Amino acid sequence: MHPPLTLHRHPMCAEIIEAFQKCHVDHPVKKFFGECTDLKIKLDQCFRQEKALKRKANFEESKKFKEQLQAYKREMAEENKES
């Protein structure tokens, strides 16, 4: 099962999504017998790559946030020591 095939949510995979949807329209019965399987495999691979990029970006963002939080905690600890 794949996520909804909306082009604006998956710009990296837009070309493959369009080809996959066209294959399903062009082959309404053959799609059940593997006519569009190659495109489905490519689509799944594209979604995996897209997810890996998002995961990496989220990880980098969380690292920045953790560093900011640690700096804030140190700053607050120093202020408490001075008081």
Automatic annotation (TrEMBL):
<dbReference type="InterPro" id="IPR013892">
    <property type="entry name" value="Cyt_c_biogenesis_Cmc1-like"/>
</dbReference>
<dbReference type="GO" id="GO:0005739">
    <property type="term" value="C:mitochondrion"/>
</dbReference>
<protein>
    <recommendedName>
        <fullName>COX assembly mitochondrial protein</fullName>
    </recommendedName>
</protein>
<keyword id="KW-0496">Mitochondrion</keyword>
<keyword id="KW-1015">Disulfide bond</keyword>
<comment type="similarity">
    <text>Belongs to the CMC family.</text>
</comment>
<dbReference type="Pfam" id="PF08583">
    <property type="entry name" value="Cmc1"/>
</dbReference>
